[in-house]
């Protein structure tokens, strides 16, 4: 085969691989949208469930998901980005730091149910937070830290070393260079890692099952030590534990969760594009 034939064959295989990945995703999204749209209404979004969750809305579950995501962000972002800054800018290349990086990569692959059991043992039982928002948010934060640390470190290392050299030549301290030059230039990659971590946290069921989620709680939380309903667990409950649940309720809940996740994705894309346009390399 000549060069052009091989090239066309390669492009064809890449297109086929793309379709194999994209088409099933689009079919699933289309199915959820078509079957979930009839359930969407102001009552469904703004009211609490009633009649054994077969009627009413999912407002407490929406609020619970937002609170857990915000709590995860408050804990995981400063710790994760701070850890990435230390590993990328301050830590020397020793056996210890290489072991830490390997541990972070391994932690990213641990099943979420293991994090749930860890959160149950540490936050719920040992620290006596009980099944609460704070226990759930801390568990989700620990679960998302490996993703945020690894992607943020790679984004920091991708910033050209010349930026640091110019900072030192102008009399700037190492921290001034990190704060004013390196971090702003690495921000698009850091935002990507943060959003990936938060998206995983927003859609997980197992960690919140052990630490925060309530089966049926048609009221809003009053403090960080209260239980909450959450969209992923609520979807699991109404799909498997409630007999006779209308299909529109199930797909409507799935559609709301999908909209929440896609909204985070779109917001992250817009923010990342804004900072990428300001990047100087």
Verbal overview:
- With 281 residues, this protein is mostly helical.
- The chain has a single domain, classed as MetI-like (MetI-like fold), CATH 1.10.3720.
- It contains eleven helices and two strands.
- The protein has helices at 3-36, 42-46, 59-90, 95-108, 112-126, 133-158, 161-169, 174-203, 206-211, 231-240, 247-278, and strands at residues 49-50, 55-56.
- It has a two-stranded antiparallel ribbon.
- A hairpin with a 4-residue loop joins strand 1 (49-50) and strand 2 (55-56).
- Helix 10 (231-240) packs antiparallel against helix 11 (247-278).
- The relative contact order is 0.15.
- The mean pLDDT is 88.
Features:
281 residues; 1% strand; two-stranded antiparallel ribbon; mainly alpha; MetI-like fold; globular
Helix content range: over 70%
> What does the main sheet amount to?
2 strands, antiparallel
Shape: globular
Distance between the termini: 40 Å
What is the beta-strand fraction?
under 5%
Q: Record the strand order, biggest sheet.
A: 1-2
Q: Structural class per helix/strand content?
A: mainly alpha
Q: Could you give the order of the helices and strands?
A: HHEEHHHHHHHHH
Mean pLDDT: 88
Please tally the β strands and state the result. Answer: 2
The CATH architecture classification is: Orthogonal Bundle
The CATH homologous superfamily is called MetI-like
Give start-end ranges of low-pLDDT stretches. none
Whole-number tally of structural domains? 1
CATH structural fold name? MetI-like fold
Specify the CATH class: Mainly Alpha
Put simply, the count of helices is 11
Rg on CA atoms, Å:
22 Å
């Amino acid at each position: 085969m000549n060069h052009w034939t091989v090239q066309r064959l390669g492009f064809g295989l890449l297109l086929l691989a793309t379709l194999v990945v994209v088409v099933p995703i689009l079919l699933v999204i289309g199915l959820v949208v078509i079957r979930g749209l009839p359930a969407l209404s102001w009552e469904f979004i703004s009211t609490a469930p009633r009649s054994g969750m077969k009627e009413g809305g999912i407002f407490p579950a929406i609020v619970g998901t937002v609170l857990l995501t915000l709590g995860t962000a408050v804990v995981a972002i400063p710790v994760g980005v701070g850890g990435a800054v230390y590993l990328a800018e301050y830590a020397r290349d020793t056996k210890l730091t290489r072991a830490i990086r390997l541990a972070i990569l391994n932690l990213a692959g641990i099943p979420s149910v293991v994090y749930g059991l860890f959160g149950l043992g540490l936050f719920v039982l040992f620290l006596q937070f009980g099944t609460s928002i704070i226990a759930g948010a801390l568990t989700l934060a620990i679960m998302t830290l490996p993703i945020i640390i690894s992607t943020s470190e790679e984004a920091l290392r991708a910033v050209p070393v010349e930026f640091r050299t110019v900072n030192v030549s102008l009399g700037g301290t190492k921290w001034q260079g990190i704060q004013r030059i390196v971090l702003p230039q690495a921000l698009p990659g850091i935002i990507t890692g943060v959003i990936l971590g938060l998206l995983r946290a927003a859609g997980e069921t197992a960690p919140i099952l052990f630490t925060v989620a309530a089966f049926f709680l048609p009221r809003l939380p009053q403090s960080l030590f209260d239980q909450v309903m959450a969209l992923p667990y609520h979807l699991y409950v109404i799909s498997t534990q409630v007999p006779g649940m209308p299909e529109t309720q199930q797909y409507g809940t799935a559609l709301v969760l999908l909209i929440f996740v896609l909204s985070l994705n779109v917001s992250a894309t817009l923010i990342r594009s804004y900072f990428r346009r300001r990047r100087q390399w």
